[in-house]
User: Fold this.
Amino acid sequence: MPDAAASDAVPSKTQNRFIAALRDAAFVGLITAGLSFPLIALRAEADMNNHLELQQRWSWLVSATIAMAASRFIASIFDRLVARIVGVTGVWLILFAGGTAYYATDTHPGVIAGCVLAGLIAIGLAAALNRSSVDAGRTETRPAEPSRFYRLDTSGGSLAGNLISIAALGCAIAFPLVVLAWLGPQGSLKWINNYGVQILIYVMLGWGLNIVVGLAGLLDLGYVAFYAVGCYAYALLATKFGLSFWLCLPLAGVLAAFWGILLGFPVLRLRGDYLAIVTLAFGEIINIVLTNWVDLTNGDAGIPSIPRITFFGLPFTAADDGFAARFGIEFSPIHRNIFLFYLILALALLTNFVTLRLRRLPIGRAWEALREDEIACRSLGINTTSTKLTAFALGAMFGGFAGAFFAVRQGFVNPNSFTFSESASILAMVVLGGMGSQIGVALAAAVMIGGTELLRELDFLKVLFGAAFDPSQYRMLIFGFGMVAMMIWKPRGLVSTRSPSIFLKQRKAIAGALVKEGHG
Amino acid sequence: MENFLQQLINGITLGSIYGLIAIGYTMVFGIIGMVNFAHGDVFMVSAFIALIIFLALTQLLGVSSIYVAIFIVLLASMLLTSLWNWTIERVAYRPLRGSFRLAPLISAIGMSIFLMNFVQAVQGPRNKPLPPMFNEVIHVTSGGAFDVTLAYKQIIIVAVTAVLLAGFWYLVQKTPLGRAQRAVEQDRRMAALLGIDVDRTVSITFVMGAALAAVAGTLYLVNYGVVSFSDGFTPGVKAFTAAVLGGIGSIPGAVLGGLMIGLIETLWAAYVSNDYKNVAAFSVLIIVLIFMPSGLLGKPEVEKV
Assistant:
């Protein structure tokens, strides 16, 4: 990190500054070269006889080193974050142009020239941005930061929050209809299914986990286990006993809640990181059992042809007794997807509603008290065992609902959908959204799932990097990096204020940093 | 009996590898109280580095002696993996020192996902098989139901582990560096007041943990002869289990725990069920944490108001 003390650069120090930035850049370049020497510059690839051959890619090492060193240089000579971001973007544009000119010789020269020009403009803009900030910094002193306790206005914050929630809900309700009207049944399928339904599943899972992590402060790294229980509950009950989805949905929730209690009992004494690791182990055990208990679950091959969703008994088929025929509209597969969308929206809203109401009940207050101080809770006579168990059970129940929904949507389940990385993603949503903040979790789910889905759309990059380039391959890579970057940039999540559930005289939004995360 | 003896040998070999990884977990937890979730992936990265250096030595530079090659691979892998872990600590964990307790854990989970996918992106998703090396075996018993064998590579693994652990023990117990480290572990603020550079000490801890993980990665490659980008997670969790079993924060405990987890896993696979051997290791983790949270050699945690 650049030295903060150097930020008030006096002109005479400019030269020192420049040399220091060069030194920084050289250091970063050296580190990058060292890091990428084995993994990037050489690639072990098995040939036809399964014999490993080394491919040499020294140009990759050089590109990575130059890119990191140049970015570091820009970041060192500019003080303001905006200037740094703009400047680094400019550097990358220029490097990108250079790389394309070198490797993809058939690229149009205009594209390259445009990139270089845009990059130069960006760097110039960054310099201007930086200068203006330095000037501004000299003439006016920054006011002291207000106390974090009273950072937000009282009534205004809550009203704005309500408006945002209502607007978000309105958007969600209108979304499939707008998309359908705009793109037609064919074009809208992807948007409703891949984006809408997918995001809402994660919103629901995030809200379910938020009860455990955000409200009760119990760090659960194995949440996907309950999702799996719900999913397999519906898959097995429907395929082996022919039960309908509407009967299985509550059953899946009950079974998952039962597993939540079963898991909760032994781990109640554990705290913090230990609890996290034990729940992780439970999640893995469930996954291993699902994989290896072939008689019941059919192992890795999964359970195929799970009965699809029906409109309260009317199947979404082109048959005479189907949904379309009964309602006298033309058959289209989009009907099922729209129905699924509203179903998961309703389930997610149910989760949200229950959570919000529970926060006002004694049990919800006990959760939050437990999160803040377990010892004080015990001294005040709160039964911490039952408090933790209800949190686990309720969170698990919503996970189970989401699981049953997942099974009915996919029509096929196998254990690969319930790996640790799934648990980590859901936890990441809860943390990145701001633990305990409902709207923040929904926002984080939309950004993370929507963003990673959007990466699939970046086909134009294929033109630049060649046909073998697959942007979705870098989905999880960016995702992991994003988690780290988010923690460094905004450790308290996107929504960094919390609204207390109980208050004296007037409601004040408080900074997330003042909310504890529980001891487990 | 022959079977049991053979499984014992295999278990100790596997346990040595787990023990080496577990030290990285236990030291980092001891010094900054954080479960370094990415440590398993650092181990995987080290195995890849070892693989690539090995191929570079044998294919590009034409080193013919396999013993020389493995020795150089071991040193290079320790060096480069240390550089990786140093950078990871610098970029992903150090800015979060003093942040809330979950922040480093989440950052480490992110780093774990990043490393796994980074290796997948740059090295490809397929398994990387090496031809078997050190194939000679010693027959320990003969004439029974089958011969109990001790492979050369198993001897190498146990010997390298023992030598490095001795060196490491000396480093931690007898040098100023180790003293600074133990001081920071006991009381970070007091150590800083007494003039110890805490940031540097933490960095060195990460470097040491990575170096031992790199030894484990190289030995893993020697033992199994194959590595893939997803190989970090399960050994990582098992090594963490070993650290917890031995008492987190205790270095001899980590080694003891590693050996026990290795034995439990191989014996379970041999006598109960191979499919469920990971369940055995995870169950040990759960049982130990519930009934003996301070582990075999750890200090009990005192609850303060």
Remarks:
- The two ends of chain A are 33 Å apart (CA to CA).
